[in-house]
Design goal:
- The protein has about 425 residues and is of the alpha/beta class.
- It has a single domain, classed as TIM Barrel.
- It is built from 17 helices and ten strands.
- The strands form two sheets. Strands 3-4-5-6-7-8-9-10 form an eight-stranded parallel sheet.
- Strand 6, helix 5 and strand 7 form a beta-alpha-beta unit.
- Helix 4 runs parallel beside helix 5.
- The two termini are about 30 Å apart.
- The relative contact order is 0.15.
């Protein structure tokens, strides 16, 4: 949807990938009081490992007025808010860091609840313009379900931030039916399950090779949620469930779906052949036994009916695949306030990705799809977009010169960098 302002039409841009969190000590009022002494002791010795959270610009994570002003200046009227800062009692932002003791496990749950409570207030400070993504741990499914219900009741419409189950986590794999109460709660409440890049990778260390391997593998580990939930039958048991895969690129989707359909077809066909009278079972048929009944739909049908992609700083080669990915699946994101995000050059980033494409298709990818998935009111946001949104003519003009100080990879080599 676009908005009319005078003689100019403007796009309603919703970033499906932004990040926020409280300043460390500001989490204290959101903790239950019996955790205050432990929090004071933890905070007094905590050293933040992230340079961007120590910089002068760190308040972009929690300064609501600054954030609204900067996003509007960037042409963005609403945002899906993923976590960014360190929750109380965690050594880092990773939810997979194991808690050595039961007491520390309880404290980390309290820390996540504090973040979710803070996030509800942060979203309420900009009514209708923020969809907050709440956090859970997978170690206690009953408690996770309680927190899902509490967070949605508190007004967080962004859905669940799904931690991964990387090798060594000790958790059941995501295809396990043990997580069914979580999928059921999200489907029932109409909020998506979000899986963000970086949330599923195993620890690899700090050697140069380890950092390189992390960069190569991190999106792959995040993609795994798709085939785990699909082959595990989560979408058959919970047909209203929505899965969003964010900041993992989008160009990989067609090829991965082809691969998943190939294996699904081989396994299901082999099992069906083996079920015929006088047909000997093969190793492949045994692998595929029961899969068709457990899954229901095949992988491409699951993608068509249940899945979406948070296509952060989308690139031209990805936009060219939009029909194969699904035009109704793609949700552009700026990744504000991260250095790899497009701020303050989101208009230029949008031009790189979308210049020359049909207007209705651009409108869907930059805002319409996100509004549908996360429940934003497009008519209400259109009134703001009429003032600050990029014009149709502006985005239709190809970008001829890259901003010299742009830091997003979308601007590298004309935006042709691939994220698999």
């Amino acid at each position: 949807m676009s908005s009319r302002h005078g003689s100019e039409d403007r796009y309603t841009v919703i970033s499906a990938d932004c990040h926020a969190g409280a300043d460390l000590l500001d989490y204290r009022p959101y903790l239950e009081s019996h955790h205050h002494d432990a929090f004071d002791a933890w905070a007094a010795t905590y050293v933040n490992p992230y340079e961007d959270l120590l910089a002068d610009t760190a308040d972009r994570n929690w300064n609501s007025d600054r954030r609204v002003a900067e996003l509007e200046a960037d042409g963005i009227v609403a945002e899906v808010v993923f976590p960014n800062t360190i929750p109380p009692f965690f050594p880092s932002a990773s939810l997979m860091a194991p808690a050595p003791t039961r007491e520390e496990f309880e404290q980390r749950w309290a820390g996540l609840r504090a973040h979710n409570r803070w996030l509800a207030d942060f979203c309420a400070a900009a009514p209708g313009r923020r969809a907050g993504v709440f956090q859970i741990l997978l170690n206690d499914v009953d408690r996770a379900v309680e927190e899902i219900h509490r967070s949605v009741e508190a007004g967080l419409t962004g859905g669940l931030m799904l931690p991964g189950t990387p090798p060594g986590s000790g958790l059941p794999e995501l295809y396990s039916a043990e997580y069914d109460p979580i999928w059921s709660a999200c489907a029932e409440l109409g909020v998506p399950v979000n899986h963000h890049a970086g949330s599923a990778s195993p620890p690899l260390g700090e050697e140069p090779a380890a950092r390189a391997v992390f960069m190569v593998e991190t999106t792959w580990f995040s993609h795994r949620a798709l085939w785990h939930l699909a082959f595990g039958g989560a979408f058959r048991r919970h047909p209203e469930l929505k899965l969003v895969l964010t900041e993992q690129g989008s160009g990989w989707v067609p090829g991965v779906l082809d691969m998943l359909d190939y294996y699904h077809g081989r396994l299901v066909a082999a099992a069906q052949r083996a079920g015929g009278a006088g047909t000997a079972g093969t190793a492949e048929s045994k692998f595929g036994e029961g899969l068709a009944d457990a899954m229901g739909k095949g992988p491409s049908e699951v993608w068509r009916d249940n899945c979406f992609v948070g296509a952060s700083f989308m690139r031209p080669h990805e936009a060219a695949l939009r029909d194969r990915i699904g035009l109704d699946k793609i949700m552009w994101g700026s990744d504000y306030p991260h250095d790899e995000g497009t701020y303050p050059y989101s208009r230029e980033g949008l031009r790189i990705a979308y210049a020359g494409l049909p207007r209705d298709e651009i409108a869907a990818m930059v805002g319409g799809n996100a509004a549908r998935v996360y429940g934003f009111d497009l008519a209400r946001l259109g009134e703001i977009a009429a003032r600050v949104g990029p014009t149709v003519g502006e985005l239709d003009e190809p970008l001829k010169e890259t901003p010299a100080d742009a830091t997003s990879p979308v601007f590298a080599a004309g935006g042709a960098v691939r994220v698999w």
